[in-house]
Amino acid sequence: LLEKYSSKDISFDICSCQFSFHYCFESEDKARRMIRNAIERIRPGGFFVGTLPDAERIWLNNGTNGVYSNDVVRLEYDDKEVLNDPNGKPPIFGAKFHFSLDTQVNCPEYLVHFPVIVFRLLNECGMELIYKKRFPDAIDYYLGMQEGRGLMGRMQALEPYPPFEGVRWIYLLCWECFQGTLSKSEWEVTAMYLVFAFRKKNNAKLKESICISDCFASISGLFLIVSFNF
User: Fold this and answer.
1) Range 56-83 average pLDDT
2) What's the number of domains the chain is made of?
3) Pairing of strands 96-101, 105-110
């Protein structure tokens, strides 16, 4: 993206990538290109923040034939042969699954093995992990902070948007009965995501890339197999 900026010397304090980072993990080349575009012009001390499907929560197994669904979401893993192999593991790149969320999303997506991001792809670019939290944990964490709770209030994230005149809040009964605004199925979808933040180290430089697939092929502990055991 460097040639598209108004100035080649431009720099940024933060880069945010929400609900889209995982699409580049179809291949290692695409993942590297996206990461380079995202962090190349971040200042030392600047941040790269984003959200990802949580691979540890998306375990497609033989028992369900690689399919999970509830009232609002349906996921199906693409490679059934891996699922039927007791020793099979999803590939680091190109682990495709089909994701349908109500009427909003219906497209192929890719699992992201977080250790690959931490220990190679971003570390070799001079980025250090600041935090990684599952959505439910992040919500609890930020609700306990004055700034976080204030921001959620301004965003109206703690209640439905103001209704049309004369229309009752559709979640009022749910709030009164369960002290929350999400159904069980909606919370299950929420728990499928995580939030992360990396910070650029001082004097960080982009290093020559190393083939991730070769480096991780024999390290089974870094292959995240996904699970639907909510």
Assistant:
1) 74
2) 1
3) antiparallel
